[in-house]
Amino acid sequence: MRAQSESVVSASHREGLDGPIVGGHKYAGLHPLDRSQTAPANDRAPDSNVTDGTGPLRMPPASLCWLDPVQERTVKKAIVVYRSHSGVTRRYGEEIGAFLTARGIATQVVSVGECDMATLADADYLLLGCWTSGLFVIRQHPDEPWLAFVREMPATLRPSVALFTTYQLRTGSQFPKMRAALAGKTASPRLELKSRDGHLSAADERNLEQFLA
């Protein structure tokens, strides 16, 4: 299990809690649709029978080949929208997004203040997160900026929905209140994830796999 103690937000995040996502972590890698990368010579496949008339061509690995338009249309899309108070919920959202990306899903991770509402209707998966506000053991609830985002959000019934939160002692009424705020706005959430330190656990990964299935 990962350590439950709070870790320091990395230097790449010092521009602010709701700034652009930068920096790498264990799931970082080439995006499935990234066409800007080319394979170095020593990573390319051996000579094949493909020829351009002057000799055999070297073919790049399959993982770096461009996707045709039909393949692009079949790539699933996910949007992870978070509201963070101290940076922990942002980190949790980033790890969730990186996990999805590593499984071939085109994923966008944004704060409630950065989210373009028009993108929600095209998503296959919508993951909404907010830190747990309240009195530690009672009256837990999502904070006002998250609730304001939900009020402004258009009805978006297409995506499969998951909720996530970070907390100190307990989540209490956090998820019921998030669900109540979303009533009539989205499909009923199928998954709830929670973390004290903002890191994705092995159990979280298993639950996300089931959510994507």
In words, what does this structure look like?
By secondary structure, the protein is an alpha/beta fold. The chain has a domain at 76-212: Rossmann fold (3-Layer(aba) Sandwich). Helix content is 23%, strand content 15%. The chain has helices spanning 69-74, 88-102, 144-152, 174-182, 202-212; strands spanning 77-83, 106-111, 125-130, 160-166, 191-195. It has a 5-stranded parallel beta sheet, sandwiched between helices. β1, α2 (88-102) and β2 (106-111) form a beta-alpha-beta unit. The model is unreliable at 1-68 (pLDDT under 50).
Short overview:
With 213 residues, this protein is of the alpha/beta class.
* Cα-based radius of gyration, to the nearest Å: 20 Å
How far do the termini sit from each other?
A: 25 Å
CATH fold name of the domain at 76-212: Rossmann fold
Q: Into which percent range does the helicity of residues fall?
A: 10-25%
Shape: globular
Largest sheet: 5 strands, parallel
Under CATH, the homologous superfamily of the domain at 76-212 reads Flavodoxin domain
Strand order of the largest sheet: 2-1-3-4-5
CATH class of the domain at 76-212: Alpha Beta
Our estimate of the beta-strand percent is 5-15%
Mean pLDDT: 76
Instruction: Give the low-confidence spans.
Output: 1-68
Structural class: alpha/beta
Q: Order of helices and strands, N to C?
A: HEHEEHEHEH
Number of strands: 5
